[in-house]
């Protein structure tokens, strides 16, 4: 029985470590998205401001802006995917944590996570931020940048 409890304790430590890592990853993914999106949008704005001075055809400059915004959108989609996968992994690890505590400590020691509580998860708002920022980039480009590049 002692070996079983020691194994359960080690597994429990591992699960808690993984939960912590999953939580930290969401922040890393957001930082990567913010950095790459800022760089890509800055490049698009630099292209918009300097295309005449660089003797680029307006159609080429428009294509460049669209390409940079498309790349920012791909980065956003990739980041969103990583955040969703991380949230699913978190749910899995939390359920495993509950399985261990149910068996070793007693049933109901730790409440199981409920996916219905997604409005309380910060990942939900990170995903909303990413979605709103991508929509805002495209709308502003369509309203102001692309029409001015004729």
Automatic annotation (TrEMBL):
Residue stretches spanning the membrane: 31-51, 63-91, 125-146
Protein name: Uncharacterized protein
Species this protein is from: Streptomyces afghaniensis 772
Entry keyword set: Membrane, Transmembrane, Transmembrane helix
